[in-house]
TrEMBL record:
GO terms for molecular function: ATP binding; DNA binding; DNA topoisomerase type II (double strand cut, ATP-hydrolyzing) activity; metal ion binding. Its cofactor is Mg(2+). Residues 54-114 form the Spo11/DNA topoisomerase VI subunit A N-terminal domain. It is found in: Nucleus. GO terms for biological process: meiotic DNA double-strand break formation; meiotic DNA double-strand break processing; reciprocal meiotic recombination. It comes from Drosophila kikkawai. InterPro entries: Meiotic_Spo11, Spo11/TopoVI_A, Spo11/TopoVI_A_N, Spo11/TopoVI_A_sf, TOPRIM_Topo6A/Spo11, WH-like_DNA-bd_sf. It comes from the Eukaryota. The keyword Metal-binding applies. This is DNA topoisomerase (ATP-hydrolyzing). Its EC number is 5.6.2.2. The active site is at 82 (o-(5'-phospho-dna)-tyrosine intermediate). Pfam families: TOP6A-Spo11_Toprim (PF21180), TP6A_N (PF04406). Residues 164-326 form the Topoisomerase 6 subunit A/Spo11 TOPRIM domain.
Length: 332
């Protein structure tokens, strides 16, 4: 067995020792991005009625993860839930237990083997060759395909594309595909969307395209703080999983828009920021891994108190906006 399984067994042995002393407690590392220095761990105890259910789910998830490490295979969050819905109560509780185990082991859900159904879509010149011999071929299909739930079962990626374009929203993705961007763009490309905040699978495929296939990757998001956070998630990893971004983050990702500095020329298509928007701006500005250019754009948004959606440039997105930004290197 590998180090991963040994770490799981070490956690189990520590738990048994605690239980002998009458203390059925597991320690879960806090999120490093929000941890208080004096409380690096959160205690989940069977002896505490408020955390008893969480404790049971955590032990269950540790056992399932160990089984995967010994025997191989994978589970889905959905599959586990429908195996015993009365025990789990909701899929979100399984997802929370999975994230806690990831923190305990310092790893990502992909390495854990307990996977959420992929929500990402891809289209364009790309073929995924799976380890079981299957081929997911967008080139011959001609439309959008859902990314595989487990990207580690993708043996290799074949493509003759020149670049990757990621769009925040499914609606924009569908608009570009239906508008046949692949024949009008002028260069061969792969189009990807994570349908908002990207899951691990989408981020892993983007990472592999950038690193294994050495393709330049560009991203288009709304000119609002949540769009910028989505861009930052692709580039540096999610805040909730800041402990494990290796193989998921793509620092070379280029942000082509919408940039808050473009908002003044959009006129009536820009709308006022809300309280939640301003709070999110402050949260982002407090991050230490924010690039100077991104920080400046956030301050511009904070100053003008306006935001805009990608749809405000949808009429000339494929023919003008995207190629102009890429060819003239107008990205951050």
């Amino acid at each position: 067995m590998g180090e991963f399984a040994e770490n799981l067994e070490r956690i189990a042995l520590d738990l048994i020792k605690n239980m002998v002393r009458g203390d059925a407690t597991l320690r879960v590392p806090q999120n490093p991005a929000s941890v208080v220095a004096t409380r690096p761990f959160r205690r989940v105890s069977y002896n505490n009625r408020r955390s008893r259910h969480s404790f049971c789910l955590l032990v269950y998830m540790l056992a399932k993860t160990h089984r995967l490490q010994v025997h191989g295979g994978s589970y889905t969050v959905r599959g586990l839930y429908y195996g015993d819905p009365q025990l789990f109560r909701s899929q979100s509780r399984i997802a929370s237990a999975r994230l806690d185990v990831c923190r305990m082991l310092g790893t990502s859900p992909l390495q854990l083997g307990v996977l959420a159904a992929s929500k990402g879509l891809m289209a364009g010149n790309i073929r995924l060759l799976m380890v079981n011999g299957d081929v997911l071929d967008c080139s011959s299909y001609g439309g959008a395909m859902t990314l595989p739930t487990d990207p580690e079962k993708v043996d290799s990626i074949e493509t003759q594309a020149d670049l990757v374009v990621i769009v925040e929203k499914e609606s924009v993705f569908e608009s570009l595909v239906s508008g046949n961007i692949f024949s009008t763009f002028g260069r061969s490309l792969i189009l990807i969307t994570g349908k908002g905040y990207p899951d691990c699978c989408t981020r892993r495929i983007v990472y592999r395209l950038a690193h294994e296939n050495r393709l330049p990757a560009y991203i288009l998001v709304d000119a609002d703080p949540f769009g910028i956070e989505i861009m930052h998630t692709y580039r540096h990893g999610s805040k909730a999983m800041s402990f494990s971004s290796h193989g998921l983050a793509t620092p070379s990702l280029r942000w082509i828009g919408l940039h808050p500095s473009e908002i003044p020329v959009l006129g009536r298509q820009a709308v006022a920021l809300g309280t939640g928007d301003n709070k999110k701006i402050n949260d982002l500005l407090a991050r230490s891994d924010l690039e100077p250019g991104v920080r400046q754009e956030l301050r511009i948004m904070q100053e003008v108190q306006l935001k805009a959606e990608i749809e405000s440039v949808i009429d000339f997105l494929a023919d003008d906006y995207i190629p102009n930004k890429i060819n003239r290197k107008l990205y951050l």
